[in-house]
Write a structure and sequence with these properties.
The protein is an alpha/beta fold and 361 residues long. The protein is built from 14 helices and 5 strands.
């Protein structure tokens, strides 16, 4: 039969342990350990102490042995639990994240990197945040190769930052293929503890094209929905702009390079209406046209989560949104100078060239 080791206390130790048990400043844990030692010194076995104090026999045995081993210091402090923390090789973590890809995957995840380095996923996530690394994020871009990029850039940014007097600057474009989508089942509304629901599948009920002209000065929008976006529809929209703007104003229209905008019939009409002055954005630089920002707003706020059973219903929703917008319009303020944009494009081209050269070699 296994017998617990005997504890013999000196008068000083007895007094010290008793003081710990009786003091209101002693932690609950330390006071309980002192009681275990005092009862053990009285000759009680571990199982009897466990029953008397309402703790486990193994716990009693542990603190009896630690007191025998280190006396009071053995019960005053806890020993470290579990395995020692694994140190992350941060330099290798950053190198793997930025210079390599995992096997059979396009990018690293926290779990894949954790398995590679033998650390926890939480550690990987923490160091990624500290170094600003986001392997799961990819941002789209396209650098314009237009040979007249600088000339067109300066022209359009100049209109934004220093618009001409006695003239209106209008950013024009069409948002094509706006779909009237109806859901196959009704969704559930938002409520506490649950997000709104919407079926992933839908029924197509036709499309419309939104033509819009954003007034850079005050944010007002001239808009018109038409079934298609050929040169005939574009010409119809130009006539609408002509009717809805003051006759004595020169109109500077900023457009992209869509062939419809340069159709010979459109050119003939523009020749007969000299107050229309066309400015075309560089190729692959539609972001220079501020009406794209308006298209983003109407898509996010009204169209993306809308349910439309017909094209007329979709057109009515668009007209309602634009009417509401025009009651209290707010212009988008362009702040970036042409020089700053040009420098950014030069840096992007430099990086792309170096990357292409490295790939070729």
């Amino acid at each position: 039969m296994r017998v617990a080791p005997e504890i013999v206390l000196s008068d000083e130790e007895q007094a010290e342990l008793t003081k710990l048990v009786r003091s209101k400043l002693t932690s609950v844990r330390l006071a309980q350990r002192a009681r275990i030692v005092l009862l053990a010194a009285q000759g009680l076995q571990n199982k009897d102490i466990a029953v008397q104090l309402g703790v486990g026999r193994v716990q009693v045995s542990r603190w009896r042995e630690r007191y025998i081993e280190s006396r009071l210091a053995g019960i005053e402090r806890d020993r470290p639990r579990g395995a020692p923390p694994v140190t992350v090789d941060v330099a290798r973590l950053v190198e793997l994240t930025t210079q390599s890809k995992p096997e059979a995957a396009t990018h690293w995840s926290t779990r894949m990197m954790a398995a590679e380095l033998g650390v926890s996923a939480a550690s990987v996530s923490r160091h990624w945040r500290a170094h600003g690394l986001k392997p799961h994020v990819v941002r789209g871009f396209k650098v314009s190769r237009d040979p007249k990029f600088v000339e067109k850039l300066q022209d359009i940014v100049g209109l934004y930052m220093s618009p001409p007097e006695h003239a209106l600057v209008l950013c024009c474009d069409e948002k094509s293929q706006g779909q009237a989508l109806d859901r196959t089942q009704p969704g559930l509304p938002l409520k506490k503890g649950r997000a709104a629901t919407m079926t992933h599948d839908y029924k197509r009920n036709g499309t419309t094209t939104l033509f819009a002209a954003l007034n850079v000065l005050d944010g007002q929008v001239i808009a018109q929905c038409q079934p298609r976006h050929r040169h005939t529809e574009w010409l119809k929209f130009l006539r609408t702009i002509d009717r809805e703007t003051p006759k004595g104003k020169t109109l500077h229209l900023i457009c992209d390079n869509y062939a419809t905008h340069k159709h010979p019939v459109v050119q003939q009409w523009l020749d007969k209406h000299p107050r229309f002055v066309m400015h075309f954005t560089p190729t692959s630089a539609s972001w220079l046209n501020m009406v794209e920002r308006f298209f983003r707003d109407i898509t996010v706020k009204r169209l993306r989560r809308g349910v439309f059973t017909s094209v007329p219903e979709l057109v009515a929703a668009i007209d309602e949104y634009i009417a509401h917008h025009n009651t209290n319009p707010k212009p988008f303020i362009w702040t970036k100078s042409a020089r700053d944009i040009q420098q950014k494009v030069i840096r992007a081209n430099s990086r792309l060239s170096s990357k292409q050269n490295a790939t070729l070699h």
